[in-house]
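Practice problem 4.
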């Protein structure tokens, strides 16, 4: 039984390392003037407008996917 969960132990050990921001510190694009400009524009006063502009199409897409996945069940019932 222990052999079955050996891979989970490796994941449990390595998962916290994925949360560390160390690779981001090495990114030269993240510390460039262009990146700072993009961050300033995205996180400006219209942050909620930008977030809604991203979330609305994703919500609609997920609704369409849910309808398409639900349709075969309705076909099999009739």
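Answer key:
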């Amino acid at each position: 039984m222990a052999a079955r969960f050996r891979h989970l132990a490796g994941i449990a050990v390595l998962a916290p390392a994925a949360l560390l921001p160390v690779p981001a510190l090495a990114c030269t694009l993240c510390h460039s003037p262009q990146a700072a400009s993009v961050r300033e524009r995205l996180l400006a006063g219209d942050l909620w407008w930008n977030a809604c502009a991203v979330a609305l199409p994703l919500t609609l897409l997920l609704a369409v996917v849910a309808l398409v996945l639900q349709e075969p069940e309705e076909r099999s019932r009739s």
